[in-house]
Design a protein that fits this description.
single chain, about 130 residues, alpha+beta, 60s Ribosomal Protein L30, Chain: A, 2 helices, about 25% helix, about 30% strand
Protein backbone atom coordinates (compact mmCIF):
# COMPACT_ATOMS: atom_id res chain seq x y z
CA UNK A 1 0.00 0.00 0.00
CA UNK A 2 1.33 3.43 -0.90
CA UNK A 3 1.77 6.07 1.81
CA UNK A 4 -0.92 8.73 2.16
CA UNK A 5 0.39 12.29 2.00
CA UNK A 6 -1.67 14.74 4.05
CA UNK A 7 -1.85 18.51 3.60
CA UNK A 8 -4.19 19.94 6.22
CA UNK A 9 -6.53 22.73 5.04
CA UNK A 10 -5.94 25.70 7.34
CA UNK A 11 -2.82 24.04 8.72
CA UNK A 12 0.47 25.82 9.29
CA UNK A 13 2.01 27.18 6.09
CA UNK A 14 4.94 24.93 5.12
CA UNK A 15 8.35 26.59 5.36
CA UNK A 16 9.89 23.99 3.01
CA UNK A 17 8.71 21.36 0.51
CA UNK A 18 6.94 18.73 2.65
CA UNK A 19 3.57 17.21 3.55
CA UNK A 20 2.09 18.05 6.96
CA UNK A 21 1.97 14.31 7.65
CA UNK A 22 2.55 11.03 5.87
CA UNK A 23 0.67 7.89 6.83
CA UNK A 24 1.66 4.27 6.26
CA UNK A 25 0.15 1.15 7.84
CA UNK A 26 -1.61 3.19 10.53
CA UNK A 27 1.55 5.06 11.49
CA UNK A 28 1.38 8.83 11.04
CA UNK A 29 4.63 10.77 10.72
CA UNK A 30 4.03 14.46 11.44
CA UNK A 31 6.50 16.95 10.01
CA UNK A 32 8.30 19.12 12.54
CA UNK A 33 6.24 22.21 13.24
CA UNK A 34 7.47 25.73 13.74
CA UNK A 35 6.06 28.36 16.14
CA UNK A 36 4.30 30.23 13.35
CA UNK A 37 0.66 31.30 13.56
CA UNK A 38 -1.42 29.49 10.89
CA UNK A 39 -3.75 32.52 10.76
CA UNK A 40 -0.87 35.02 10.37
CA UNK A 41 2.12 33.07 9.00
CA UNK A 42 4.21 36.20 8.43
CA UNK A 43 3.67 37.58 11.95
CA UNK A 44 6.67 37.69 14.30
CA UNK A 45 7.29 34.51 16.26
CA UNK A 46 6.18 34.42 19.91
CA UNK A 47 8.77 35.70 22.40
CA UNK A 48 10.69 33.05 24.34
CA UNK A 49 10.86 29.29 24.23
CA UNK A 50 7.79 28.68 26.44
CA UNK A 51 5.52 30.67 24.11
CA UNK A 52 7.14 29.12 21.03
CA UNK A 53 6.74 25.60 22.46
CA UNK A 54 3.04 26.25 23.12
CA UNK A 55 2.55 27.52 19.55
CA UNK A 56 4.40 24.48 18.12
CA UNK A 57 2.24 22.12 20.17
CA UNK A 58 -0.95 23.87 19.01
CA UNK A 59 0.26 23.50 15.40
CA UNK A 60 0.93 19.81 15.98
CA UNK A 61 -2.57 19.40 17.44
CA UNK A 62 -3.98 21.10 14.34
CA UNK A 63 -2.18 18.68 12.02
CA UNK A 64 -3.16 15.66 14.11
CA UNK A 65 -6.80 16.78 14.18
CA UNK A 66 -6.66 17.13 10.40
CA UNK A 67 -6.01 13.39 10.14
CA UNK A 68 -8.52 12.49 12.86
CA UNK A 69 -6.04 12.00 15.71
CA UNK A 70 -4.95 13.78 18.89
CA UNK A 71 -1.93 13.98 21.15
CA UNK A 72 -3.13 10.84 22.94
CA UNK A 73 -2.16 8.90 19.78
CA UNK A 74 1.46 10.12 19.79
CA UNK A 75 4.05 7.41 20.37
CA UNK A 76 7.27 9.39 19.81
CA UNK A 77 8.32 13.03 19.76
CA UNK A 78 11.56 14.68 18.72
CA UNK A 79 12.33 18.14 20.03
CA UNK A 80 14.99 20.41 18.54
CA UNK A 81 16.30 23.40 20.53
CA UNK A 82 18.70 26.08 19.32
CA UNK A 83 19.61 27.12 22.90
CA UNK A 84 19.60 23.73 24.62
CA UNK A 85 21.12 24.63 27.99
CA UNK A 86 19.14 27.84 28.35
CA UNK A 87 15.75 26.59 27.10
CA UNK A 88 15.53 22.90 28.04
CA UNK A 89 13.76 23.33 31.39
CA UNK A 90 11.26 25.95 30.17
CA UNK A 91 10.44 23.90 27.07
CA UNK A 92 9.84 20.81 29.23
CA UNK A 93 7.46 22.68 31.54
CA UNK A 94 5.31 23.83 28.62
CA UNK A 95 5.56 20.55 26.65
CA UNK A 96 4.50 18.43 29.65
CA UNK A 97 1.22 20.34 30.05
CA UNK A 98 -0.02 19.14 26.64
CA UNK A 99 -0.10 15.47 27.67
CA UNK A 100 -2.02 13.41 30.19
CA UNK A 101 0.20 12.81 33.26
CA UNK A 102 1.78 9.37 33.05
CA UNK A 103 0.95 9.12 29.30
CA UNK A 104 3.93 10.91 27.78
CA UNK A 105 5.26 9.67 24.44
CA UNK A 106 8.80 8.44 24.05
CA UNK A 107 11.02 11.42 23.24
CA UNK A 108 14.40 12.62 22.07
CA UNK A 109 15.56 16.21 22.56
CA UNK A 110 18.45 17.53 20.49
CA UNK A 111 20.43 20.75 20.55
CA UNK A 112 20.88 22.21 17.06
CA UNK A 113 22.70 25.20 15.59
CA UNK A 114 19.67 26.66 13.84
CA UNK A 115 16.07 26.14 12.78
CA UNK A 116 13.90 27.49 9.96
CA UNK A 117 12.34 30.94 10.42
CA UNK A 118 14.72 31.69 13.31
CA UNK A 119 12.72 29.49 15.69
CA UNK A 120 13.99 28.44 19.11
CA UNK A 121 12.13 25.10 19.01
CA UNK A 122 10.75 22.59 16.51
CA UNK A 123 8.93 19.36 17.34
CA UNK A 124 7.98 16.42 15.13
CA UNK A 125 5.82 13.44 16.04
CA UNK A 126 5.02 9.84 15.25
CA UNK A 127 1.45 8.78 15.99
CA UNK A 128 -0.42 5.50 15.60
CA UNK A 129 -4.04 5.01 14.61
CA UNK A 130 -6.03 2.95 17.15
Amino acid sequence: MLPIHHMIPGGPRPVAPFSHAVEADGWVFVTGQMPTDPNAPDAPLPEGVAAQTARVMENLKLVLAGVGLGLEHVTMARVYLTEFERDYAAMNETYRDFFIPGRLPARTCIGVTGLAVGALVEIDLIARRP
